[in-house]
Amino acid sequence: MMGTQAAPAQLFYNFSLDEHVPADHLLRRIDNHLDLDGVRAQLKPYYSSTGRPSIDPELMMRMLIIGYSMGIRSERRLCEEVHLNLAYRLFCRLGLDGKVPDHSSFSKNRHGRFRQSDILRHLFETVVERCLVQGLVGAEGFAVDASLIAADANKQRSVSGAEWSAQEAKENAGRSVQEYLAVLDDAAFGAASPVTPKFVSPSDPAAQWTGAHKGHAFFAYATNYLIDTDHGVILDVEATRAIRQAEVGASRTMIDRTENRFGLKPGYLVADSAYGSADNLAWLVKEKEIAPHIPVFDKSNRTDGTFSRADFNWDGEGDRYICPAGKELVQFRRTYATPRSGNTSEGTRLYRASKKDCDACELKQRCCPNAVARKVPRDLNEDARDVARAIAGTPDYERSRHRRKKVEMLFAHLKRILRMARLRLRGPCGARDEFLLAATAQNLRRLAKLRPSRLPAAMTA
């Protein structure tokens, strides 16, 4: 016969959270690698010694980790889920009757203690240290890339970039505007490019108007990842405007910070052609001594059928180019009383052929049909680009290009699984906080997958 469901008539229950949460639950495995002992010490100077006890900062950290690890994008909904979900309660050490803090507590602490103490950066670096202890970082090679995340800014409420004035915005500036004005001289934001953007969002002027996705343009920030190519561990993350100059600058910041913080310097760096400018390659090769596994950003190839710069052979010892006809191109054909550097304002040197050689040359129509003589510019850091070109033909380069896909996979995971297709917080600080928490969550999930339990103490000593 048909059964019916009736409420049990027991008066007392013996209920254990630990027994009802599976042993292989993701949050259990994350908890094996989570060390929040330093949170209290880091935040202690920012709490008063008098008054009522505050909400435990470790509880808020654990709740934020749940939110970013499980793709819960609303703090209001996060509080509801922690209240109802047994696994979340176990992870937060709340038990069955522990009180969940109000969602407004996160905003108050985020704009105050969390940013003043830089606790989210501290949490991220603590997780990276755990990855190092667990042997997930080899430091043979790093990869760097950036991805666009839509900002919380509405196109319909934007103004023309030519009409917007930072000086006028100071009068009634909100929090996100104040944050932007504070970083106007920062290479990642205000000083990233002198170009006036087409549109500016008055509510979040640091967000960049961009059409990089080849569809409808939108306001966005760029999240920049520096990862180890062995296991795809995120070693550093940086928030910038969504323009190439800021992203390249962020890669240098992350490489320096990783070396200073963890003592890690890669043997090679792999990236796409956006990072292949002569200046950036020179910085890697000459200053950092890192092999650039990066396609050279080069606009010298011609499409009109005439010879490109690659058709001219460079003679380093003679400081000259040799053209396809075997004639030389040099900087100077006479000696000047006052020596000249030969450097142009664009940071190049010009090598010119002799007019006499070009007039008699059978290849003139394929070389310089509209000029009396051919000239070839050479960047001051062309030697660094030559290093990158030489590496591009090796088997190691092909392997590293394949391993670079791990950073693309992390961005896909960030947007599809963790649901960070759009930011909730505004301003440079809001973008930085969200990117740090998301990268922390991704590293914790990677630890939980590859190292589901702690290593014995003898192995970590």
Short description:
The protein has 461 residues and is α+β, with helices and mostly antiparallel strands. It is built from 19 helices and 13 strands.
Note down, in words, how this protein is organized.
This protein is α+β, with helices and mostly antiparallel strands. It has 19 helices and 13 strands. The chain has helices at 17-20, 26-31, 37-43, 57-69, 75-84, 86-91, 104-117, 119-133, 166-169, 175-182, 244-262, 278-288, 355-359, 364-367, 382-391, 395-403, 405-416, 427-450, 457-460, and strands at residues 141-150, 159-160, 199-200, 208-210, 218-228, 234-241, 268-270, 291-293, 313-315, 320-322, 328-329, 348-352, 375-379. Strands 1, 4, 5, 6, 7 and 8 form a six-stranded mixed β-sheet that branches. Strand 5 (218-228) and strand 6 form a beta hairpin. Helix 4 (57-69) packs across helix 5 and helix 4 packs across helix 18 (427-450). The longest helix is centred in the last third of the chain and has 24 residues, at 427-450. The radius of gyration is 28 Å and the shape is elongated. Residues 456-461 have low confidence and may be disordered.
Major sheet characteristics:
6 strands, mixed
Query: What characteristic shape results from the CA principal axes?
Result: elongated
* Strands, count: 13
User: Helix count, per DSSP?
Assistant: 19
Task: Give the terminus-to-terminus CA distance.
Answer: 64 Å
- Unreliable runs: 456-461
Mean pLDDT: 88
Percent helix among the residues?
A: 40-55%
Structural class: alpha+beta
Return Rg in Å: 28 Å
